[in-house]
Write a structure and sequence with these properties.
Blueprint lengths: L1 E7 L11 E9 L5 E12 L5 E4 L5 E13 L2 E5 L5 E7 L5 E7 L6 E8 L5 E7 L2 E4 L2 E4 L3 E7 L5 E7 L5 E8 L5 E7 L3 E4 L2 E4 L1
Length: 202
């Protein structure tokens, strides 16, 4: 469960002139008993498009978008650009933050990020972007397109692919199967949308 509480108005914020938030992450067992509760602070837009999933080892993964600043343990994600960027974070079984990373870059505004884990403890992450998205050192370019990516449980990027056409195209959800394949759903306004060599006409 993820919730956000506004702690500071933009006019009182010492960082970027953005409102402050406290983000609460909680995990419960099948009987509704709290396993842990943890949180992170931040300044900026509410992290909409948030998605949660856990792997077979009990680790929790949280993905979404943000604008400004988010603190994860002793680490900080910064996004000073006047756009939203994506983030992906991993919490261990006891609620300790393992790692967190940005997905974006100038002009790489991201929205609607969704994620899903498979039996190999890999994480499939999808999202929509305006002009480009950068993950680690890999950049995908387009215009109103979307990306599909996969990460190891360590946070290392395994692969990332972009898809789209000449108009606005978007992804809404992602799922994985027992063999590790990734499935996405979405929509497209382009007359033709490209998935590498596969083309679909509207």
């Amino acid at each position: 469960v993820v919730a956000a509480l506004q702690t500071m108005e933009a006019s009182d914020s010492p960082t970027y002139g953005l409102p402050g938030y406290w983000y609460i992450v909680q995990k419960f067992d099948n009987d509704g008993n709290l396993i842990y509760g943890t949180g992170t602070s931040g300044y900026g837009a509410y992290p909409y498009g948030s998605s949660l999933d856990s792997d077979t080892a009990g680790n929790l993964y949280w993905g979404g978008v943000f604008h400004g600043y988010m603190g994860f343990g002793s680490g900080v994600l910064l996004n000073p650009n006047d756009i939203v960027e994506g983030f992906l974070a991993k919490y261990e079984q006891n609620g300790t933050i393992a790692w967190a990373k940005n997905m974006g870059g100038y002009g790489g505004q991201i929205g609607g990020t969704s994620l899903s884990t498979n039996n190999d403890e890999q994480i499939s992450v999808v999202g929509n972007f305006g002009t480009r998205v950068t993950v680690d050192s890999v950049t995908i370019q387009g215009y109103g397109d979307f990306f599909v990516s996969m990460f190891e449980s360590s946070g290392k990027l395994l692969w990332i692919n972009g898809a789209g056409g000449s108009d606005a195209d978007w992804v809404t959800a992602v799922a994985t199967d027992m063999e590790g394949s990734t499935y996405v759903t979405g929509g497209y306004g382009s007359s033709v949308i490209d998935f590498d060599s596969l083309k679909i006409s509207n």
